[in-house]
Specification:
The complex is a heterotrimer of chains A (about 325), B (about 350) and C (about 375).
Chain A lengths: L1 H18 L10 E5 L5 H17 L2 E4 L8 H13 L5 E4 L8 H9 L3 E5 L19 E3 L3 H15 L4 E7 L5 H14 L5 E8 L4 H14 L3 E6 L2 H13 L7 E5 L3 H9 L4 E4 L2 H16 L8 E2 L4 E3 L18
Parallel strand pairs in A: 1-2, 1-3, 3-4, 4-5, 5-11, 6-7, 6-8, 8-9, 9-10
Antiparallel strand pairs in A: 10-12
Helix pairs in contact in A: 2-10, 5-6, 7-8
Chain B lengths: L4 H29 L6 H10 L1 H15 L7 H21 L4 H15 L1 H13 L4 H20 L9 H7 L2 E6 L3 E4 L8 H6 L1 E5 H19 L1 H11 L1 H6 L4 H27 L11 H10 L11 H21 L4 H28 L1
Antiparallel strand pairs in B: 1-2, 1-3
Helix pairs in contact in B: 1-15, 1-16, 2-15, 3-10, 3-13, 3-14, 3-15, 4-5, 4-7, 4-13, 5-13, 6-7, 6-13, 8-13, 10-11, 11-13, 14-15, 14-16
Chain C lengths: L9 H5 L3 H11 L1 H16 L6 H26 L7 H21 L4 H28 L5 H20 L10 H7 L1 E6 L3 E4 L15 E5 H19 L1 H11 L1 H6 L4 H27 L9 H13 L11 H20 L4 H21 L7
Antiparallel strand pairs in C: 1-2, 1-3
Helix pairs in contact in C: 3-14, 4-9, 4-12, 4-13, 4-14, 5-6, 5-7, 5-12, 6-7, 6-12, 8-12, 9-10, 10-12, 13-14, 13-15, 14-15
The chains are: A alpha/beta (about 325), B mainly alpha (about 350), C mainly alpha (about 375).
Chain lengths: ~325, ~350, ~375
């Protein structure tokens, strides 16, 4: 028994060392996609990445879609992917501005380039030298501007006066924080509009629903709600529907899932901001291609736009491609 | 089943050590079908990634052996992650050096970390509250407290010394340049960085050290014997003169100590304090302990088994990422392994006994 | 399992005076008292708390927990526990949604797709319970582990079927059934049955009061049925007996294995039902938002309601009270503007309190 075990271990060692690490030869980079969380928005980015890789003939490795948002779950995945040894660039959405700096730097130092999408590390400005300026680029929606425009649209819908409420996810995630701030700035131009509260649901839809329901109770004259991401918005409109206030309360939502588009058509939601995750994914792969294959400098920040869905254009054929779909 | 003496012995050994063989098997399979799985770097990553579960499982081992369970560890970990980060930041603001802040923070956190365990222990031992309820209540309390302390925002602004220790290795080897301690050699070029070999991650080293100390306590001290006795039959233990209440309280204090330590490790690794640091790993620690051979009824289990159970999960998770397998398989596999572990633990001793 | 503490204070109780007996009754029914106190408190601290809309909210919020807790009651009375309910709920929500969606897409009428989706979902929902039951009853796997394993398996399969996206494009009637009320009342316009007043205007919608949501009716009916089963049928007696002392139950001729399997199937049936209702109410099938905390809260509710984790005690009525207390706390805190963090602390403390009280006051085993 003992001898057999020893033999087994030795042969494993030998074979393992032989198969070892294959260095990436040639100019075409092997790309790894490490999403931040399991939600339709990130799946769409993944689709953009996959399609573009196919088109350009690049190899793609897809890591798991985490069920929970946070460095504890994300970092081991990043490190496991990096340890494979055959990855040239990792595309990821850092789940924390601070906590991911050190792990990503380590991975970068071991020879793998980093592209961040949707969220960034540090303050997102990779053009000035700093401890977090090593990523190739940041590709993400201009959340602040989006928030401002949502505010303007919503203000128009409620007649430029009344009380509004913000339902959001986390106070420490760059994307939603900017949306909230943009919204507040936009609303500051309307003296008759009052923001009565901000609630954090930590990206759990049922919590969003409860929080909005309670807010409606405490402030019966709320006329507008801004849900800063898909789960926030979905929970918000459900609460409004349950309270029987559909139509009386206007809802602006961020992210165009099929659920929210359907709600828009049914009148339960009044404004949907579609980010362009597919484009984000495409741009990320293009950036990698430019850097590795063409040897070009890549802009440190790319901002694909966004698209507003209202009841007027929701059925237009050209708008359909902005909906986050599974197929 | 008709077996010879030798056969029965072999089967018994197999039954007892199957989890270790399973771990080896896993590692071997992934090394073959994975890419770059079999490397010093990857294995060390697995160790570091397993640190959280390892520490939580170590504490749970004590509790589970007494026939109890500690559901609060996930959020006690988060609570002390936040506390340790806060202490560092506050001391720094007062003008103390990073080193002093860090040392005081760790010491303070670990000391305070005994409190939830004390409470749990008193509830379980003195007030006869079922462990499930007592620790579940503590889970809620710890969660609430940790969110209040950090106002739902992760704590930032920690000195880089923290990350340096948390992500550093004991020894570095660069082919052509030799060894350096504690820090990689200065001024490395990109290509050299890739060839750099780092050995013995600090965080894991420290964790395993503490775990092994407690493994010794569990298996070789009188206190350890008491723990098993309480788990075997609490009344008999009492009648035998074992100070059951006092020992139970200590057991829960050990568990929350490990949770606090795990929180400190998180702060070191991620240079931030988050209230939800341990929420993803709560039940995994119990899974690791049970896979490692403990029974929820109490009386069996040991630290080595828990360590192996932790590694089984760690290797499985990393292996699956390495292969690019979709997430859902992992949950199914872990669930199946868990049930299998219990079944095997139950059937093997029976089979051996039947043969007699 | 550790030996049961059977408190034989029946003797002592019969010597109590009236004052003491009242205190005992109060102690045993403290949950109701607590509920009343909470309602009064929150009426002051929360704006608009004391209104039918709030009641509606509370009932709606607590339905999923109520269903899970009802199933859990059976399991806990037998001295076991079921951790898989949260993900079984998600799995069945996804499965029933997929069935409804695909059949509808093929052109079948909603009155076919929807019932089929519901029925198949519920039927499949018995499977996890069957497996759990067999593991626990035949293979003597501790319930904590068996159901924890099933939790993982259900999660994995739910992810697999849904590929991470919520299932949408269900027949539109789904939402109507899920969110409908039996009657609507508009001040000044009177009642309208099954649908809102046809010519209602935006401004009036705020005053519209929905009476008796379908969802609540379904939940109430089921609770009554199963409360009856638990307290008045032989099967129910078996459940208590198994929880009291499993060996004695076996010796008394009770088909322990068969009944245990049924108990776990009941639990996963309720979880499946909860999932189907989720799909009906939200018109989507999803699993991603469910986490372990829902089943832990369901278990907490059962315990607050008077059950003991050692088995042998508990009731559907008590469980309902437990769920209401938790839901009340949640909504009340939200409306009073108290940070959710304090709520967790409150729930944790109450839970511990509940158990300590249950143990300090004398138990009457046989009434």
């Amino acid at each position: 028994m003992k001898r057999f075990v020893v033999f087994l271990l030795v042969s494993v060692l030998v074979v393992g060392l032989m198969s070892g690490v294959t260095l990436a030869q040639g100019k075409k980079p092997k790309i790894a996609w490490c999403p931040a969380i399991d939600d339709p928005f990130y799946y769409m980015i993944g689709k953009g990445i996959a399609d573009k890789c196919k088109e350009l003939g690049l190899e793609l490795f897809v890591a798991e879609y985490p069920k929970a948002w946070g460095p504890e779950v994300q970092v081991p995945i990043l490190e496991a992917v990096a340890a494979r040894g055959d990855i040239d660039v990792i595309i990821t959405g850092p789940t924390s501005k601070e906590a991911l700096i050190a792990p990503l730097k380590r991975i970068h130092d071991s020879g793998i380039e980093i592209i961040t999408v949707d969220t960034y590390i540090g303050d997102g400005d990779y053009s000035k030298p700093s401890e977090y300026s090593f990523p190739l680029t940041f590709i993400g929606t201009d959340n602040f501007q989006g928030g401002v425009e949502v505010a303007h649209h919503l203000a128009e819908m409620i007649g430029k006066k009344g009380k509004v409420f913000i339902e959001t996810t986390n106070p420490d995630v760059s994307s939603v924080v900017e949306r909230v701030e943009g919204f507040k700035k936009g609303m500051s131009e309307y003296p008759d509009i009052e923001i009565v509260g901000v609630e954090y649901n930590l990206d759990v839809q049922e919590k969003a629903q409860q929080q909005v329901a309670a807010a409606l109770q405490a402030n019966p004259d709320i006329v507008g709600i801004f849900g800063t991401n898909l789960y926030s918005a979905q929970g918000a409109y459900q609460a409004v529907v349950n309270a029987g206030l559909t139509g009386a309360v206007k809802i602006a939502s961020w992210d165009a899932t099929e659920d929210l588009i359907k709600a828009l058509k049914e009148g339960k939601v009044d404004l949907v901001l579609a980010q362009k995750p597919y484009e984000i994914g495409t741009l990320a792969v293009e950036a990698a291609y430019q850097y590795f294959v063409e040897g070009k400098e890549v802009p440190k920040r790319m901002v694909p736009g966004f698209f507003f869905f209202t009841r007027d254009n929701v059925n237009d054929p050209e708008s359909q491609k902005y909906i986050y779909r599974a197929d | 089943m008709v077996l010879s003496e030798k056969g029965r012995e072999r089967l018994y050994l197999l039954g007892k050590s199957w989890i270790f063989l399973f771990l080896l098997g896993e590692a071997v399979i992934f090394s073959f079908i994975g890419t770059g799985f079999f490397s010093a770097k990857n294995f060390q990553n697995i160790l570091v990634a397993s640190t959280t579960i390892l520490l939580l499982a170590a504490g749970e081992t004590f509790v589970i052996i007494t026939g109890g369970i500690d559901l609060s560890v996930g959020f006690v970990m988060g609570l002390f992650c936040v506390i340790s980060a806060k202490i560092i930041v506050s001391l720094q603001a007062l003008g103390f050096s990073p080193v002093v802040s860090l040392v005081v923070s760790i010491a303070g956190t670990l000391l305070l970390g005994l409190l939830p365990g004390l409470l749990n222990g008193v509830l379980v031992a003195k007030l006869r509250v079922p462990p499930f309820i007592a620790t579940f209540g503590m889970y809620g309390i710890a969660y609430g407290l940790s969110e209040i302390l950090c106002n739902n925002v992760p704590i930032a602004g920690l000195p880089s010394l923290v990350g340096f220790i948390g992500n550093g290795y004991l020894l570095y080897y660069l082919p052509g340049r030799g060894f350096t301690w504690f820090a990689p050699p200065e001024g490395l070029g990109r290509g050299e960085v890739r060839a750099l070999l780092a050995l013995f991650p600090n965080v894991f080293l420290f964790a395993i050290l503490v775990v092994l100390i407690f493994a010794f306590i569990l298996s070789r001290t009188q206190f350890g014997q008491h723990v098993y006795a309480i788990g075997g039959n609490i009344d008999a233990a009492r009648r035998a003169g074992i100070p059951v209440e006092r020992d139970l309280i200590r057991v829960y204090m050990i568990s929350s100590f490990f949770a606090a330590l795990s929180g400190v490790m998180y702060t070191l690794r991620f240079v931030t304090g988050r209230a939800d640091a341990g929420s993803a790993r709560m039940l995994d620690s119990v899974v690791a302990v049970v896979i490692g051979g403990a029974s929820l009824y109490g009386g069996t289990g040991n630290m080595i088994g828990s360590i192996i159970g932790t590694l089984v999960i760690g290797v499985l998770e990393t292996g699956m990422v390495n292969l690019g397998l979709p997430t859902y398989n992992k949950y199914v596999y872990v669930g199946v392994i868990l049930v299998l572990a219990v079944l095997i633990d139950q059937f093997f001793p029976e089979m051996v006994r039947k043969g007699e | 399992m550790p030996p049961l503490f059977i408190r034989l204070r029946i003797m002592a109780y019969s010597h109590f005076g009236y004052g003491q007996r009242f205190a005992v009754q109060l102690g045993r029914n403290w949950v109701v008292l607590f509920l009343v106190i909470l309602v009064v408190l929150f009426s002051f601290t929360g704006r608009g708390f004391f209104s039918p809309k709030t009641l509606n909210n509370i009932l709606l919020t607590s339905s999923p927990a109520l269903l899970l807790a009802a199933g859990e009651t059976f399991v806990i009375i037998t001295g076991g526990i079921d951790l898989s309910v949260g993900f079984v709920r998600g799995l069945i929500s996804v499965i029933s949604a997929i069935i409804m969606r695909d059949l509808y897409a093929r052109g079948y009428s909603p009155s076919f797709c929807i019932p089929l989706g519901i029925v198949v979902g519920l039927a499949l929902g018995l499977l996890p319970g069957l497996i759990n039951g067999i593991l626990v009853a035949r293979f003597r796997v501790p319930p904590f582990i068996a159901t924890l394993g099933m939790y993982g398996v259900a999660n994995g399969f739910a992810l697999r079927f849904s590929k991470g996206f919520p299932i949408t494009f269900l027949p539109p009637e789904v939402g109507q059934i899920g969110n409908g009320f039996f009657a609507y009342f508009l001040p000044g316009r009177g009642l309208s049955f099954f649908a809102r007043h046809a010519d209602i205007v935006e401004g009036e919608m705020r005053n519209l009061i929905g009476i008796v949501p379908y969802a609540i009716v379904v939940v109430a009916v089921l609770l009554l049925i199963f409360a009856f089963i638990l307290s008045r049928t032989q099967f129910g007696q078996h459940v208590y007996a198994i929880g009291g002392n499993i060996d004695a139950a076996r010796r008394a001729g009770i088909p322990v294995e068969r009944d245990l399997i049924r108990v776990y199937m009941i639990s996963s049936f309720f979880a499946a039902l909860s999932g189907v209702m989720y799909t009906l109410i939200f018109s989507i099938g999803t699993h991603t938002q469910f986490s372990a905390s829902l089943e832990l809260f369901a278990i907490a509710a059962v315990v607050i309601g008077g059950a003991s984790l050692m088995g042998g005690k508990g009731s559907i009525g008590g469980t309902t009270l437990g769920v209401l207390v938790l839901a009340l706390l949640e909504i009340g805190f939200l409306m009073s503007g108290i940070l959710p963090f304090y709520r967790y602390i409150a729930v944790g403390t109450i839970l511990i309190f509940a158990v300590v009280i249950d143990q300090t006051f004398p138990e009457i085993i046989y009434e």
